[in-house]
Amino acid sequence: MAMGIAPGGRRGGKAPPMSEINVTPLVDVMLVLLIIFMVTAPLLVSGVPIDLPDSKAGALKQDNTPIQVSLNAEGEIYIDEQLVPAEELAAKLAAISEARAGEAEGPRIYVRADRRLDFGNVMRVMGEVNAAGFKKVALVSEAGAEDR
Fold it and tell me: How many CB atoms lie within 10 A of CB 113?
């Protein structure tokens, strides 16, 4: 005599609803978004086109937004993406230093210079940065690139 047992070992004909969420599509979407952000984030960092020198040093950690002083191949000076005449550089840097003096770690400044520039021009700008009171100054280069 048959007892009415269903093929899965359960009595009755209906299985209970599945209460687990399938996370595979969510993981796929998150990985695609991660790749998109990893590719686009470095493109958003710098606005002034500069041919940076190569370096084997790793990238610096970024906690807050640093100030970027850029020198292009023609010797023009930019603070972030704003063109600054050379004679006004000291005054602008002093104003920025005073405005950001309240930060706990002190303001950070990155100096980006085209590889074709004279070293004296870069050192002159570095001297202006130091005279303005910036203590955390870094020179930016391209990481991991081979000699050209």
Answer: 27
